[in-house]
Amino acid sequence: MKSSVHSFGSWNLLTLSLALLFALPFFSLIVTAGSGGENVWGHLLSTVMPGYLKNTFWLMLGVGSGTLLIGVSTGWLISMTEFPGRRMMEWALLLPLAFPGYIIAMVYVELLEFSGPVQEQLRLWFGWQNYMDYWFPPIASLGGAITMLSLVLFPYVYLLARTAFLQQSATLMEASRMLDKSAVNSFFMIALPLARPAIVVGVSLAMMETLADFGTMQLFAVQTFTTGIYNTWFGAYNAPGAAQLSLSLLTFISFFIFLERYSRKQQRFNTQSSIKNVHTRYHLSRVRAVLALLFCIFPVLFGFALPAGLLIQWATESWRGVMLDRFFSDAGNSILLAGVTALLGVFIGLLMAFGSRLSKRRRVHWAARLVSLGYTFPGPVVALGVLLPFAWFDRTMDAWMQETFGITTGYLLSGTLFILVFAYLVRFLALAYGTAESGLERITSNMEDVSRSLGKNTWQTLKQVHLPLLRGSVLAAGMLVFVDVMKELPATLMLQPFNFSTLATRAYGYATEELLKEASLWCLTIVVVGLFPVIFLNRQLRQTAPQN
Amino acid sequence: MIECRNLTKSYGELEAVSDFNLHLEEHEFLSILGPSGCGKSTLLRLIAGLEVPSKGLVLLEEVNGKNVSGPGPDRAFVFQDFALFPHLSIEKNIAYGVNGSRSEKQKRVEELLKLVSLQHLASKMPHQISGGEQQRIAVARALAPRPRLILMDEPFSNLDYKLRLQLRREIRVILKHEGVATILVTHDQVEAITFSERVLLMHKGKLVQAGTPEEIYQQPQTLWASSFVGEANHLSAEWEETSLKSPFGFLDVPAEIGKETRILMVRPEDFILVSAPDGEANGIVKTVEFSGAAQTVGVELKSGEKIQVSGSPHLLWNLEDPVKITAERYLCFNSFGDRLDGFIAK
After folding, report:
1. Interface touch A171/B97, C-beta < 8 Å
2. H helix and E strand count, chain B
């Protein structure tokens, strides 16, 4: 656009180069996947692929229906009915989000495995001697993985379904009632179809998390693409193979990204502004009210209260025995990494959001949007995509230095914290960028024009107008990145320097050695940190709840 | 066909509808007129069965005088925001409330689309059609199950002025054609007057006055009614020995009424305004608003009270002109604001 006030200046260049930098892993995967030759691909297809596909299919189906059933039914009960304890359950249903899949999996393994307290008690009661005498559902299985992930991922569906039900015009349900339809009929013919786009968004998010999950699958020995990428890399150092698996996984994920975006667009028609938005809640009879409350307590109990309680118990039992200095050094590492990534993420996210807003060029918008895809990339994919180009750089540098100066530089960047932070940024920059962008959207371009007309330049405007207005979103963005880095497992496992560990990787290390009780202090800390975004979400929840 | 007996709905302390009685004939068009927050929508929702009354009954005559509980196919509701189901096409919206086979539904939908002259929109989605079209579809959907009573809650207030006039006329014709009885809730007196044969005036949950629009305008029961429907001047008055003393002279009023009278209500067009020399004048012109067909003159009386007078557009007044005011017609109200019966005009 010639008429544009802003020439293709430093801002566009900055935004574009940042976007390209953080899209680097994606391109490196494509290049690497193509370098292995046909036989690698054929080998994958004939060996591991069928198993991955089968497990992935059942996982999708299982976690999809699990989150759908729990999420929609609790969302409906909370938004449309009145029962004692409803207000408490409204936020309690978000608590399971604080548990990363691998931690809840660890707790349930410890609780339900052969030597765990539950089976021990059963043997005591019934006089069983060994595992031949009875059947107990194996926790480390596909079914177990589905249950674990459903328990911690259903809040996505709950949250979106609840908001969708609340935002539906109350007169629509009344119109249905006036046309002589029962409450059940109205639910299935009006409320549910109207909430469908939102529910699909929620399920898509849960599906993407499931596809990206590494810890649960690895602990339960369920072979999926994510564990496959990790094992192909660490087991066989087969980079092209791992890259090809990564791309296959990304194909699956892109389907859900598409579904999610499409459904968000659909939602627009179904949430029209209305005069009367406050619903008259269904008043439940005493028996039904108790049933509704129990129904809501159930997922909170098994998705949060029980595992959290067990972790607290185990932590108090075992903390004297664990190496506390090890705990503090791990916690220090986690906080350092999370803090540095959060600061950098917020800074870069703001720069890019601001640059993208200033720019009228589509190229820049697309580049910025590319970065937001990083969030949908599973940890092992990001780790691999970051690892490969840096290893190449180190090797090339080393060779060149040897040739020219006769000195060896070895691995300059590989195995350093720099790479780890870079990988975190690739994965979580989208959180900071997205939050900054939606915060910026609330600042009208007129405010920018006023500031400019009063003689301020771009930097001064950013500092004096945008930043003060953005403070809330910036803090939220920093917090979200911080917490996600604290919880991150697979990329950290793949990229952490030698003799270095974080809370997450140490906990996972203990778990693989079946020292689950020792890991409880580490796990508990991660869960407590994970509660912060839940509190934040809860505050937003209050804002979407109409007063009645 | 429908009767409300001592209908009361309270929310905690607040009585939104109190002790309301109403009787509606078959095919009758009734308006409930009142300011926002007067309880008229709640009353309509009670009749619809969308709200449960705290006290009293809603009786449908044909159901052996039984109390109705909950909505029924005999009553239909047209909402202020139309409440078309956004995920269903126009045909499916109309067919939603029709019971019967597929072909019966199809037939009824076609019938109704023809009635509202919107056959060409059958397969469109609600967000693809205009506000006026949505309004007509909402009426068609309400008529679909063949109700005997249509309840409408401010159905025209979401439309712009011109469209409102046109649709009000069209929908009245459609409803008359279908032979249904109608209760319209509105805060717009012109709408109430043009749409229905009978108007119920409602204030603070209570029925203030029932009657034809002319009756309410000519003989308002309370001071509040006099100023809600039309313009009104309220002036203080006092009984002195044998006649009623008003700011515009002594009035000849029967003693039993005059002794109770505290306030006089005079419509702007019922004043007579003549110019007078300073000695005879009882007021001074303070404002003049010229609006083509009429002229509104603001006069400050010697008593200090200010009144609005409608004057002929041919006589032009100047500010500070001394004038003499008399009233051709006036109504007497007691200290509670109720009209004193038996005396209407001079």
Report:
1. no
2. 9, 21
Domain annotation for chain B: domains and CATH numbers? 2-225 (3.40.50.300), 233-333 (2.40.50.140)
Smallest Cα distance from B6 to chain A, Å: 24
Bridge partners of B251, per DSSP, are: B244
Question: Any CB–CB contact under 8 A between B72 and chain A?
Answer: yes
Classify residue A396 as exposed, middle or buried by CB count within 10 Å of its CB (0-12, 13-18, 19+): exposed
Contact B86 A269 (CB under 8 A): yes
| DSSP H/E element including A122 | helix A117-126
Q: How far apart are CA A230 and CA A347, in angstroms?
A: 31
Q: Which chain B residue lies closest to A174 (C-alpha atoms)?
A: B50
Task: Please state, as a whole number, how many other Cβ atoms lie within 10 Å of the Cβ of residue A273.
Answer: 8
Query: Is the minimum CB–CB distance between A277 and chain B shorter than 8 Å?
Result: no
H-only helix segments in chain B:
40-48, 90-95, 102-115, 131-143, 161-178, 189-195, 213-218, 223-228, 255-258
Please state the separation of Cα A296 from the chain's center in Å: 23
**Among candidate residues A336, A374, A345, the one with its CA nearest the CA of residue A475:** A345
CA–CA gap between residue A141 and residue A150 (Å, rounded): 14
B279 close to A (CB below 8 A):
no
Nearest CA in chain A to B88: A190
Question: Which of A393, A477, A380 is CA-nearest to residue A423?
Answer: A380
CA distance A350 to A371: 13
- Is this complex's ipTM strictly greater than 0.85? no
HSE at residue B150, side-chain half, CA atoms within 13 A, is 29
**Distance (Å) from the C-alpha of residue B44 to the closest C-alpha of chain A?**
13
CA distance B296 to A169: 44
Inspect the interface and report whether the beta carbons of A175 and B85 lie closer than 8 Å: yes
B81 contacts A274? CB cut-off 8 A: yes
Work out the minimum CA distance from B53 to partner chain A, whole angstroms: 15
Kindly list the averaged pLDDT for each block of 10 residues, start to end, along chain A of length 548.
50 81 84 71 75 90 95 92 91 92 90 82 81 79 93 92 85 88 87 89 88 89 88 79 85 84 73 58 87 95 94 85 83 93 90 79 74 82 87 84 80 83 90 82 78 81 81 84 90 87 90 84 90 84 58
Q: Is B85 on the interface with A (CB under 8 A)?
A: yes
Mention every residue, 6+ apart, whose C-beta is less than 8 A from residue A22: A371, A374, A425, A426, A429
Q: Which two tokens stand for residue B138?
A: 């909402």
The Cβ of residue A450 has, within 10 Å, a number of other Cβ atoms equal to: 13
Sort out which chain A residues have CB atoms less than 8 A from B50's CB and list them: 174, 177-178
Residue with token string 């009632």: A177
Number of residues assigned to chain B = 346
Give the per-residue pLDDT at A5: 45
pLDDT of amino acid A375: 80
CB proximity list for A390: less than 8 A, separation 6 or greater: A413, A414, A419
Contact indicator for A522, A506 with CB cutoff of 8 Å: yes
Contact A174 B81 (CB under 8 A): no
Q: Do A275 and B80 touch (CB under 8 A)?
A: yes
User: Is the CB of A150 inside 8 Å of chain B's CB atoms?
Assistant: no
Q: Are B24 and B212 in contact (CB under 8 A)?
A: no
Bridge partners of B333?
B263, B339
Cα–Cα dist A91/B55, whole Å: 37
CB contact under 8 A, A190 and B72: no
* Domains identified in chain A and CATH numbers: 49-301 (1.10.3720.10), 308-376+418-543 (1.10.3720.10)
SS3 A84: coil
